[in-house]
Write a structure and sequence with these properties.
single chain, 120 residues, mainly beta, 7-stranded mixed sheet, 4-stranded antiparallel sheet, 55% strand, globular
Amino acid sequence: QVQLVDSGGGSVQPGGSLRLSCAASGFAFGDYALTWYRQFPDKGREFVATISHRGSSTNYADSVKGRFTISRDNGKNMAYLQMNFLRPDDTAVYYCSAVVLQGSDWTPFRGQGTQVTVSS
């Protein structure tokens, strides 16, 4: 079955860096775009970044542009989110997501999430 597993979160000081990973299985990973979202405790989900199926196109939320980099390795069925110059307002649960065609239905899948805490 389709599975996305997030990892790499943790606690860092402002200005620090983290690299999140998303391990995919159960579908043709290289055929689908991959998106990172984040969930704040008292707010809804927020789009962070997305990458096309071959990695040739990326898009970022204005709030992370220039600080975060999304990438993927289709040979390893992995996606990454490199986060630099982290700020306290980046504190959230981060998860990767893919919308996968199953039969005739497009179904969204997401990882379990990984906590990122930025605090001094």
